[in-house]
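The data layer described in this paper is built around a simple, fixed record for each protein. We quote a single record here, exactly as it is kept in our systems:
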Amino acid sequence: MTADLVQMPLLTDAQWTRLTAFGTPQDVAVGDYVFRSGDADYDLILIETGAVEVVRDSLGWFDEAVLAHMGPRSFVGELGLLNGQGAFLSARVTEAGRMLRVTRQELRRLMSEDDELCDVILRALWARRESLRHGPAAYTLKFVGPASSSQFLALRRFAERLDLVHTAVEMNSGDLGTLSGHGITQDDLPVAFIQGEPLLRATPGLVAERLGLSYQAHADEVVDLVVIGGGPAGLAAAIYGASEGLSTVLLDAVAPGGQAAATSRIENFLGFPFGVSGSDLIGQASLQALKFGVRVYAPCEAVALTPVGRELDVTLSDGRLIRTRTAIVTAGAAYRRLDLDRWTEFERAGIYYAATQLELRQVRESPVVVVGGANSAGQAALYLAANGCPVRLVVRGDDLGGRMSSYLVDRLHEDPRVEVHTGSRVVGLEGGSALERVRIDSVGEVDARGLFCFIGAEPATTWLASLDRDEEGFLRTGTDVAVQTLDQWQALGREPLPFETSTPRVFAAGDVRRGSMKRVAAAVGEGSSAVASVHRALAG
């Protein structure tokens, strides 16, 4: 941690007095630990007198590293205090004194009651997290696996979207390096080293469980709102709900962001005249959700939604239940695939559904094919070309401007690194253990290290068979609801509210909703608007 004024803010007398009012005092001696790596629950530490050093514990192959020294009128902690992550660093007393503990519950109360302190603390915790991502602390969570492995890529995407402090080591296929000396085989990859301890055949779900990021129910808890899906609509719904006083839980089967996080650059989003990457936009929204007290859990997949009296049970894939008064389904859609031989095989080595830095590392400066005719395909083609990849954009329709914004069409035609093939289809895939060539019906066989597929998505609603859906699976809402059980609405004395599905107190927003505009800004508007109907339902 660099001791700058964001990470180590200088608090005024008034600010320090207000902050200490939330803490419980404790006298400490030299050598005491105020928290240790591995603690599932720990506190924000306020140093009234004395001093503390923040350390990354020894990890077997690395000695202990001292990351920061902190003295009077400072506070010790980082972003994990807000997202529920267990401690991955330790804080050791180097000078005896008096300190105060602010529990996570009290910290959330502070942030909801004192806007000035909330901003100071949030900026500091976020800045510390960003600093830690690029130093010795990154080795507390280390992923090792083949560069071409889809499982390894899934771990990296999970960690990046949750802004976890981590590092990743890519291996050549078939080369175990030093891992072979630890009894680790190819079948054990990818491996996640958590505080130096190996987790074999690691998945995002297993890592989340170890880090304390999986859902943990509180005894007899009933929350006001569960938002299912962490794309732009879901994040907006969760932020507005929590900021307006609703106890809010946000679930996502992968990690917050949805398809928006896979967008390399959004040029026409309000307030960003120079464009914004999907990952940056989602990262700031996720931080905003933590600011307002949203409890974010990922990967955390909902598999059933069942009315129980005037409440709802959300069943998770591991069997755990969340009891809630209302729910907003913002589950988005699952990527469509081309019906081609070896598609599933190459999904692990050359086929991608996003174009971000993670995917770019796999194909940098190599020829690629992008499939699709909407904005996401155009943005991906330009991003890949700008980073040295010769790009062939394959569009089924004859008019590139049919579904793509004109500014993208103009840039694609002007870019000499992008070759556009309209009225064309991909008809074959070739390669050994990884994708090497693609066959296009209008061109023939072309070299391709990667195929980027942006051909739309199917609504993720198969688990919601009891809700009224159209023939394509999109959820009907409000006045569009065609199937109604008369008695359930008569008992409530009303019709479905805007964004409300055929089941009372279950709402839908974003790409999953019939009639929605498939744009990031529209999804944000729908998510926030759905919360207004949630309030009306709760008041009824």
Q: What stands out?
A: The chain has a mean pLDDT of 92. The first strand starts at residue 24 and ends at 28. The two ends are 50 Å apart (CA to CA). Residues 102 and 192 are 31 Å apart (CA to CA).
